[in-house]
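ARCHIVE CARD
Drawer: 12
Card no.: 0347
Subject: one protein chain, sequence and derived structure
Cross-reference: see card 0346
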Amino acid sequence: MRKSHPGTAADLRGAARLATDATAGLADLVEAVHERVTRIPGLDSAALNGRTRGITGLVYKSIRGVTRLAGGSLGALLGLLAPVLHPAARASDTADAAAPPREREAIVAALNGVLGDYLAASGNPLAIQMAFRHDARPLPLDAAVLAVTLRGVHGVPGVPGVPGVPGVGPRLLVLAHGLCMGDRQWRREGHDHGTALARDLGFTPVYLHYNSGLHISLNGRELARQLEALVAVWPQPVERLVLLGHSMGGLLARSALHHAALAGHTWPTRLSDLVFLGSPHFGAPLERAGNWVDVLLGATPYTAPFARLGKVRSAGITDLRHGYLVDEDWVGRDRFARVTDRRHHLPLPDGVRCYAAAATLGAQGGDLKDRLLGDGLVPLDSALGRHRDPARTLAFAEDRQWVGYGMSHLDLLNRPEVYAQLSRWLGH
């Protein structure tokens, strides 16, 4: 541990205390949404109160603060949080700032999901810059530097590495997280699909880290560009590329394929499999409920979190209303206007094995919980690409669809039966 200047340490402690004392409002929305996924009435004896439990609850408690001390000022709150959350703050107290604390990462990911477009537009240092990562460390898109970085975290033949981490190989698995989440949140309750697929099927997992509050099409364009660079500098020729997206991450993958085609990228020729976990291909009704703030105003416990946002919610969230993937879906339009679905239809890519795994809180298809709640955030039809207009339905083959009953949106990240299905699909 490196000693820091006494004044610096005192300033950081003071900023941390002030940020902690300023606990109240912005995080309430994110936590309430999270709670409704994990504690749906009828499945939990405790009443919904907008609070999560355990470690998750502690994370949200640490960022609660817009309305109480910050007086409702977004800039004021972020000013309080920046000294504590920015990597430079940790670098002053430790010699190893390469892997920020997991709690900080979760806080920043939540802030970016709700306010990421504001953070980016205002040049706030808390805005996440898209990058591929492993073990929470960025992977540089430079061949020589990437090789050195990978040797440090993977252990290629002849070079000592981290025990239990597979070597870098030609099977590349890219995992894209969902709204308000980060790359480290693929690990849930001790399980990480990427690590397990590396162990069992020989993939090298790379985790996308991005600002989920930006428009999906903007993130999709940048993902396409970075995938082109990653494949070009990968230490071995990529024989098989798999994209695995949870929730919004799946929409990002589809958008990236669209932009890759426009730009003439070559990485789609390496893409063998595209896997969606609970991706809202045709939108999430909870966002649409939030759009009707004046009408609903939290009429149900499921719409209440989004209703709180009003016109503060990010572009990433409003894109989830119908599942917007391209610029033309939103450019020149009021994203808060009450409009019908005018989404440009993007079919599944040709020559790629596409899979859709969905969850439902219902015990069986078509029961009351299934029809009303889906997985708590995404309806079953949306996750499986089913549209009332057959021409717009995504053509997932029957044997490439799977439904987990009695599961929530987040259960798709860790339930054993979900991983078993992923392993069967990708282990062909």
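Annotation on reverse: The chain has a mean pLDDT of 75. Residues 118 and 314 are 8 Å apart (CA to CA).
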